[in-house]
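Thread: Modeling a multi-component assembly for a lab meeting

Hi all, long-time lurker, first post. My supervisor asked me to bring a structural picture of a complex we are working on to next week's group meeting, and I have zero experience with this. I have the sequence lines for every component (551 residues in total). Could someone generate the structure of the whole assembly? Inputs are pasted exactly as I received them:
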Amino acid sequence: MLEVNGVSKSFRGLKAVNQVSLNVGKGEILGLIGPNGAGKTTLFNIIAGRIKPDEGQVRFDGEVITGLAPNIIASKGLHRTHQIVKPFGEMTVLENMLVPFHDKSSSEVMEVLDFLGLKGNADDLARNLTFPSQKKLELGRVLVSNPKLILLDEIASGLNPSEIVEYIDLIKRINAQGITIVLVEHIMHFVKELSHRVMVMDLGRKIAEGSPEQVLADPAVLTAYLGEEA
Amino acid sequence: MTSQDRFVKGRLLVLILVAAVVLTLPLYANTYFTKIAINLAILVALASSWNLIGGVAGQLSFGHAAFFGTGAYVLAICADHQIPDVVSFVLGGLAAVVLSLVAYPTFRTKGTYFAIITIAFLESTRLIAVNWESVTHGNSGYIVSDPYMPNALLPYYVIIGIAVAVLIVSWCVINSRFGLRLKALSQDEHAAEDIGVSVRKYKMVTLALSAFMCGVVGAYYSKYIGFIDPESVFSIRWSFDMIMMSIIGGLGTFWGPVLGALVLTFISELFRITMPSLSLMVYGALMMVMIVFWQKGLISIFSRFAQPCARQGLDQQSNKQ
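Re: Modeling a multi-component assembly
Sure thing. I ran the full set together rather than chain by chain. Output:
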């Protein structure tokens, strides 16, 4: 469904993403992990059209989308959420949900809010929501536009353990609707619990790929996270 | 009858009363009041037009006097060729739209940079009007042939018609999903883009719409006032007035610019005879107070009117990009 082939991006000579390729099948959940500065978010920005890669190609649903504008990519069903939430604070939750392109009626939108547990907040200003609720709202804006694939950028960061359990369940239910998911995350048990497959990046390169258990036992991955043994 | 029904009926009654007063005003008011009413209608139309791009979409434009001036000159030129008024008004609006297309590349910039570019843009158009003497007669100004007869009823009803049309457009934009997306992009362009909003297209369409309406009002102004020169119609004062009225009344709301125009007209008439220069000082002071303490504008007193009815009506809105 999503194919990334040999994508690279440098910032002032620093290779943020270096010849990275990945493949995500329909209905899959791919976990993308790596230490800070590994290039995960840059890779997301490339896929979502926010940044143009220096080289390489991104294909979505068989179509080349490299270099297209973010709104065009979104209209094809490839959506993302942000690590730092971006609610439209001065608008109500319901109004936030009416910004994306869809022809759902108010009651259908309310169903999506209900699914996320935000039904009671429909008329609240988005800026007055709690942080976890704002994250849900951002997810809601994506869900309401009938996505085929969602890129989740550190959706679990800043959540407490019980909220993390809730989000794991939520993402499983989203995935059960046939929506493909790629998630960047630092919280390991979140990644392990959800991912069908995990890919590890370090210093812009892909260093490992496989099942969560396999990958987390990989010496190269341990080195990337913990450093060389003295 | 529910309280909601009573509220709607009450509003309808107020609307009918206002309409009745507005439509019959020249029949019993003296020419002084009719002139004030015409000025007020001009300001309401201009501020409401500006508010769409400047308030709802949050793109602070100081350049709108350029659209106004362009409309004014187009009418003056058309009047020399005996082109009917209605056609000249539309041509004035269209000329402003063409001019607004020049702004397309400027939408790469945001905030302060955008605001500065719009000032440069206005200054360039003014200089064109000054120097293109064969067409504009330059600094000596343009005497409009066949202007409205002073004290006639027609100019009053024409500007009321234009202002009402502008208000209807403004209402439709603000209460549509198009308007909602403008509000969204004014708060966070990237977030809006990430959920499929073509930010530059939305801004451009809104600017063109806003420019068209300012152009039409400019054309009317030219016909009404009978003489224009670059200093009078390409003056940044027009832009300032539009901005001040929108801010004082309430940025991005439907009633804000209307209320702002009412307040500013009232202040300027209050001091016109006694101390004309005082009105500018009062403007300025009011503006500062509003920005520091009351950013939502006077309209927030009537928050019921300011709140867009999100639930009603949005379902019926079209969803085409």
